[in-house]
Amino acid sequence: MRAKALMTAAFLAVGVDSSEGAWAQDYVVAETPATLIKQVETLRTAGLHDRMGYEIIESLTTEIGPRLAGSAREAAAQDWAVAKLKALGFSNIQVEPFEMEGWARGIETAHVVGAAAQPLTITTLGGSVATPDGGITAEVARFDDLYQLEAAPDGSLDGKIVFIDLKMYKTQDGSSYGNTNYIRGNTPSVAARKGAVATLIRSVGTDSHRFPHTGGTRYADDVPAIPAAALSNPDADQLSRLLERGPVSIKLEMTPKSLGTVTSGNVIADIMGSEKPEEVVVIGGHLDSWDLGTGAIDDGAGIGITMAAAKRILDLGIAPRRTIRLILWGAEEVGLLGARAYAKAHADELANHVIAAESDFGAGRIWRFESRVGAEDLPLSGPFTGNCGLWALAWGRMKRAVAPM
Amino acid sequence: MRAKALMTAAFLAVGVDSSEGAWAQDYVVAETPATLIKQVETLRTAGLHDRMGYEIIESLTTEIGPRLAGSAREAAAQDWAVAKLKALGFSNIQVEPFEMEGWARGIETAHVVGAAAQPLTITTLGGSVATPDGGITAEVARFDDLYQLEAAPDGSLDGKIVFIDLKMYKTQDGSSYGNTNYIRGNTPSVAARKGAVATLIRSVGTDSHRFPHTGGTRYADDVPAIPAAALSNPDADQLSRLLERGPVSIKLEMTPKSLGTVTSGNVIADIMGSEKPEEVVVIGGHLDSWDLGTGAIDDGAGIGITMAAAKRILDLGIAPRRTIRLILWGAEEVGLLGARAYAKAHADELANHVIAAESDFGAGRIWRFESRVGAEDLPLSGPFTGNCGLWALAWGRMKRAVAPM
Q1: Which chain A positions have a beta carbon within 8 Å of B241's beta carbon?
Q2: Is the pTM value of this prediction over 0.95?
Q3: What is the CATH number of the domain that holds B164?
């Protein structure tokens, strides 16, 4: 993601060089301007050889720590971002606040009751309602996946705790996350429709330690909202083994709280365009994180990647043709609330947004590029790629982005 | 450890074959009796090709779960053990109870206070005292290891929270655990002597997840007992990074409780000897575990290994010459209390104990044998070893064990 975001930004930055004509209009040129290539190479080399991105991530995750959407620590992260951007030399910095419904984790315990009495490690899913006073004690009904649960007759799970035991397997492209995490948001309402009183899902992760993955859940309007938690992988294994022996009842106690209306915000820094300042190119990551970690990967990495890329462009000393807007989104994890607030606040200018990209897939060595470059245009990416096809992705996306202009 | 314990037991079992003279008296024979070798091979083959050991571990850790010394769940594990031994065909089964001081974990939280306010994940060390009402808020004093702390002048840490940031590195033979875990028991009293009010240690483990390792601590009589906890490795990293930036204060809240006198016990099963029934060979593992896991490795593995080995010997259908005593120790993790109680209760018979071994180093594939077999005796182990020197260890230890007789 680092390379992708950096290159996207770099591409737009070098658009300032219009010595051979406006780039957006002649993106199908057979030859890439030599000056442009040189500027891109300068950015790429700088990006690959400094530690600026890491230092930004390290600062955010160490000094702020967890920063749940709408919390005091997310607000502290906004202050951190403004100070960091100023220190890096940005001048057009704004915080755009917006309101949202706050939520905070409470106590969260699960205990098998009866002969095999023992604690199980759970984490409350973001946005979950609490258990009633005294907790919920009920028998567990296990399902291999959400589809199996959906096939259960309505009312067939009256008073039960539904357990979705779907395992996530490692895939290098991360696709298994998308193939698994649908159970997190969808299980509570499907289960409630069948009469269930609470839900447990197997932690959406491929780890084997006893620290379950959180993430948010959601509720449909037409069924009761029931408490929702995730079991760590070893605890899900344990519960499955117990269920092989016979019925299992669990006592759940979860005390998350709705906090009413709280404030989040997007932090925005512009590098003003020289030729078409009203046209905007957006890059960024999200400033909020879940509360159980420090959000180093999700999404400190995106913050570090895009803030460092913007800083490199700033240091190039050439105003870009269009305005490059770095947005450090607030409350992204809990439903893209920052993006929605931005779209609402900037409704009149949306047509002037040429492209927008969020870096939110972690960071690491490049192992594959996806590209939408057609076979006939592949030679165009050559000058940018060097030995590794580095530019194909940005080039392909840029073509699609500017084509409708 | 599986192989070691099994072989030790097997060795003693085949001692029944005295067709070529009492084995203990002629262990320096140049030739190993062929009948003995065959019986040993029968046991070894059986042990390597069934799943009995695993099934015992799976049953204990699933059906009982965590079983802290002196707790109701340790008592449940004793009941489990008696029922399992009966089901396996053992007839001489005893539970020998003993009294101990009980302890139970409570709430355990740590928060950095001030500008970098954030939670840190800790676990209270076993036996630790609680923090005073309202917790302890104090500045952290970091040390690379216990030796550096010992070098600090008395009184120089008045009111501070001592943090021992000693890292454990992976070593295949597990030696790094022994080289690191001395900080767990020793830090509180050394720190208290310097004036500290609480201690944190880096989790004694090589993992990188946010689930700290517990284990017990202890207190010297001549200094105040102060609360002691472990930080997970990522949290210790985080605290170190914060300390590089300047002073850090932490609020600690820990509410463990002393439970007064509670009961633990050893579960004992004898395979009576035919020729010297009063002479005892002890094998076993410990039934108690820490409360944060299910004790599958520490020490479900030892229970499974030794109970299965004893069962194999039982199934051989030949009464051993000496009595083989399987002891499933209680309250081992909190200071070998089961062993001490046994030694006291059996003081009169201790001289009749020929050898005793506890399997408590986990389980896994064999990668190395330690042996005390002298060069001149190495050929003796040959017949037992096949291709892998399997018997060297047991043979070497047996020689040392029987030599004083």
Answers
A1: 58, 62
A2: no
A3: 3.50.30.30
